[in-house]
Amino acid sequence: MKTKHNILTLFATSFMSFMQLLDASIVNVAIPSLTKDLNVPMNRAEWIVSVYLIMICMLLLFWGRMADQIGYIKIFQTGTIFFTIGSLTCAMSPSLYILLVGRVVQGLGASMSMATNIGIIAMIFPMSQRGRAYGINSIIAQLGNISGPGLGGLVLSVLSWHWIFIINIPIGIIVYIYGRFMFPKENRKVKRVSYDWLGLITYSIAIATFFVSIFLGQDIGFGKVSVLSTFAVSLVFWMIFFYVEKRLAEPLINLKIFKISRLTLSLVSALIVFSIGYYANVIMPFYLTNFRALSTSLTGLIMMAIPFANVIAAPIAGYFTDKYNAASVSIFNLFVYAIPIVFLMFVTGKENLYLFTFMLLFLGVGNGGFQNNPMIMGYAPAEYQGIAGSLAALFRNLGMGIGVSLATTSLYSGMSVKAGKQIAYYPSHNPSWFLSGMHFAYLTALLLLIAAIILVYSIHRLDKKA
């Protein structure tokens, strides 16, 4: 395949990743509009974000394993179709329930494409060019993840929330048509498809029931028998999953990889940092649009400070990573990350918007400077590179899903303590309750950040001993 076709294919697969990660975060800024238009409380509307991420977390490893057997391109193209159909369903949704169905279909398609785009890049680029290709793919995909609220605010300033889904449709069609004619031909790799179905079932139930217990707890209270029972089911299925995986010749996840301590610490720290990053996606739209009474266009512009700083910080941090090491660079940037988090713990709502935007820039610098991929892939031996890449994507999406859960749970808890009753919606008549909830939420974010710093420092110490 000619070089220009390689580049076009790289951008086709990367831009699909961009759109799919964008859809994981762009909906957050539309939640205030969705709660009004669909007449649902804020905690129910958050399911629109969560069900998409849950589907990706449940199926990402499954499609990665299937792609190794039946081909990357077949699954990528099928995923593009499902993602586009899901986007159309979301755009035409008259109710929350139809919208959730559309998000499930979107999540199915996104999991298929996310699991295979790296494999397609490996197919079309020689070894000498793959590093740069992976880097471009990572930057484009990450930009989608963090630019969602900003772009969403700009779209909503002139159009309805339906358009955040409509814009996916022509892009999905173009990518599919391009792939139909320009992707390399790929034969089926095996005659008989084999898979760890028991591992998939137990893992999927464990993931789904974990998130259901969190959001059910937000709705009715965490002390309820139904919530505790659902969490117990999740715990039981996690135990069954690990029991099964240890005894299979070809498991869903080769648990031996977690014996590599620096790799495991890198994965967990990445999950924590991605969770923290999602606090802004969940909380900032309500703070800026509802509490500060700003227009959606101005909210979008202010929140664009985060991806703007991220894009600048990421390559600079990459340069210093090559010069020093990923753990050292990451520790420095996590301390930078702490600056805006402490600031947001004490906001009064009267801060100058220029100062507020400047602080959001630090969120982008801290996030962009955290070198999770170099740490994860750098500590994975050659025989584990494939599974390490899949786990990196899984922990990233798990982090985003857990981030939604933690951000909303801590926000509602803080508001409930202030109000003296259960609160799971934006308190329009008592905005001070929201501010208290926001302060508490960012206190939990700071505690998570401290945990991440400790983990990365442990990696740094292990690097010195190696």
UniProtKB/TrEMBL annotation:
PROSITE patterns: MFS. Its main location: membrane. The chain crosses the membrane at residues 48-67, 79-102, 108-127, 139-157, 163-183, 195-216, 222-244, 265-288, 300-320, 327-347, 353-370, 391-413, 433-457. The keyword Transmembrane helix applies. Keywords: Membrane, Transmembrane, Transmembrane helix, Transport. InterPro entries: MFS, MFS_dom, MFS_trans_sf. GO terms for cellular component: plasma membrane. It is found in: Cell membrane. It is a multi-pass membrane protein. One of its GO terms (molecular function) is transmembrane transporter activity. Residues 9-463 form the Major facilitator superfamily (MFS) profile domain. PANTHER family: MAJOR FACILITATOR SUPERFAMILY MULTIDRUG TRANSPORTER MFSC. This is MFS transporter. It comes from Companilactobacillus suantsaicola.
